Amino acid sequence: MLDAAPAQQAANWLRSLSVALDAGEPDTAAALFLEQCYWRDLLSFTWNIKTMEGRTAVREMLDAALKQTQPGTWRLKGEATNADGVVEAHFTFETQVAHGKGIVRLREGRCHTLFTMMTDLKGHEEKKGRTRALGVRHKADPSRETWSEARAREQAALGHTEDPYCLIIGGGQGGIALGARLKQLGVPTLIVEKNARAGDSWRNRYRTLVLHDPVWYDHLPYIPFPEHWPVFTPKDKMGDWLEMYAKVMELNYWTSTICIGASYDEAEKLWTVELERAGQRIVVKPRQLAFATGAYGPPRRIELAGADRFKGQVLHSSEYAGGTPFKGRKCAVIGAASSGHDVCVDLWESGADVTMIQRSPTTVVKSDTMMEMAFEIYSEEALDRGMTTEAADMLVASTPFALLPESQKALWDEIRRRDAAFYEKLSATGFAVDFGEDETGLMMKAYRTGSGYYIDVGASDLIIDGEIGIRSGKQIKTLSENGILFEDGEELPADAIVMCTGYHSMHETVAQIVSREVADSVGPCWGLGSGVKDDPGPWQGELRNMWKPTAQEALWFHGGNLALSRFYSKIVALQIKARMEGIDTPVYRDQA
C-alpha cells in the first residue's frame, strides 16, 4: 500500500474506514489511526466542535456516536498529494441527516489527522444555484404581493406579532454573518444592535483604524469583496460594507436597541428577552439566543491608585474616538498590543506628545512579513493557484490546535531570522519584544489569550525614531495630579491617559444580561487551556465555548475576526437550524 500513488493510498484507507464503520466496528476503525492521532469533527459525528486526540479517544467517540451517525458514501475529491511522506486527500461523505466533507492526512498508511465537517442538512439545503428562488410569479394575479410588500410585512411582524426563532445580540460582523447564514437556511432571526446604524461598531472607533488583516482573509459569507477593494480596509469603509450587506441580505436588523435582560424557561424551552427600542419596551420569546457582541466582552479597566486626584482625563480605548482633542497635550497610553499601538499613532498624527507604557512584552511582526509568510494561502497568488477562500478555510480548520505550536514556532523562528535587524532596533529603544512563552508567536497568542501582539503598520518606526516614548517593565505606583508616578520614583507628566487594556470574556456580557449564575455555569469564552499565563485550563483541544453548545441550553457564542466569523457562522447556523427542524442532535462530549 505504501508504494501506491497518493490517490490510491488515500482511496484504500478511506475504503477501509468505510467498511469498518458500515460494520459497526469502532475498534477496527480506530486501528486505522496512528496511536498519536487527531480527529477534528465539526458537527458531523459529534454535534459539537470536538477534537479526539489519540486512538483511544477516536474509539470512544465512535462507540458513542457511530450508531446515531450512520456515515457512508465516502468519496475522494480532487487530487491527493504526498509531501515529506504525508499523504493528504480531500473527500466527501454523508451521515444519516447531513452531507459533509473532510481532509485526511496519512503517515505510513495510517491516519495522523482527520477532519470532518458538516456542510448541509439533508432536505434543508440552502436555496442557491439551480434551486434559487424564482423571485416572481409569471401570471396576472389581483392579490399579487410584490417583493417590497412581502419584505415590509416580514419586518412589521417579526419581533411584534411573531417571535424570532433565534435572537442575535450584537449586530457587528459576527451577528451579521450569522444572521445571513440563518436567513439562507430559513430560520426566522432578529438581530439587535445598540448603535444607530449597522457598521457603527467600526465607524465609532478612532479615525485612523484600518484592518490589519488582508482583504482575501476578510470576506463575508455569500458576498465577497469586489476585486478593486483595498488590501487593508479602512474602518469607515468596513462600516459601510456591513450596512450594505445587512440590507442586501435582507436581514431583520433592529438598530438603537438595547437588551435589558433575558431568562430561560427550562420547561418551555423558551427565552424571554426584554428589549428597549427607541424608548419602547418590547418582549420577544426566541427559542435560541446567540451572543455576537465581539470576540470579547465588556471593556477591561485597570484600577489606578490616585485616580481621584489626577487632573487629566482617563478613558478606555473603547471610548477613544480620535486624537484631535489631545493636540499639543501629553498623553500616556497604557498597553502595548494592537490597540495601544494604533492609539499611539493616532495621537502622534494629531500632534500629541505620546508615551506608551508597556506592562508586558509584545509580539510584533512587520505587516509585509506577515502578508508574505503567514497569509500565503489568503492572497492573489493563492487565487491564481486555485486556492479559493473556502479551500483555505478548510485547510486552516483541518489542523488540530494541538499541532499548531510546532508549525508556528518554525514560522516564527524564520520571521525572527528574516527581520533580525528590525527587532534589534526596536529592542534598543527599551521596548520588550517576545514571541510567546514557548516562542510560537502571534497566532498562538491570539488563540490563547487574544492579546499581546501587534502587526506593525507604522508604530514601530515611530518608536524606533523616538517619536513615541516608551516606558517598559516599570510598575505604576499611583497617579499624581499631573501624571503617573512609577515605583522607581520617576514621574511621567500626562494630561490624558488612555487604557488599551483589553476586554473581559464574552461570558461577562451574559452575566449582565442573563445572570451571574448562568455566566459562571457557562464559564469563560476563548482560550485553549494551554497553561500559558492568562490561558487557564483545562486543555480542551478547542476554543472554549465558541460556536458550539454551551452549559446553558439554547445559548450560543459567535465571534472572532472576520475570517472566523465567516467560517464558523455556518457551523452555528447548522446547529440552530437542526434544532428548529426537530432533528436529533446528541452532543458528544468528553467521557469525563
UniProtKB/TrEMBL annotation:
One of its GO terms (molecular function) is monooxygenase activity. InterPro entries: Auxin_biosynth/cation_transpt, FAD/NAD-bd_sf, NTF2-like_dom_sf. SUPFAM superfamilies: FAD/NAD(P)-binding domain (SSF51905), NTF2-like (SSF54427). Keywords: Monooxygenase, Oxidoreductase. It comes from the Bacteria. Pfam families: Pyr_redox_3. Signal peptide: none annotated. The keyword Oxidoreductase applies. PANTHER family: FLAVIN-BINDING MONOOXYGENASE-LIKE PROTEIN (AFU_ORTHOLOGUE AFUA_4G09220). This is SidA/IucD/PvdA family monooxygenase. The lineage of its organism: Bacteria, Pseudomonadati, Pseudomonadota, Alphaproteobacteria, Hyphomicrobiales.
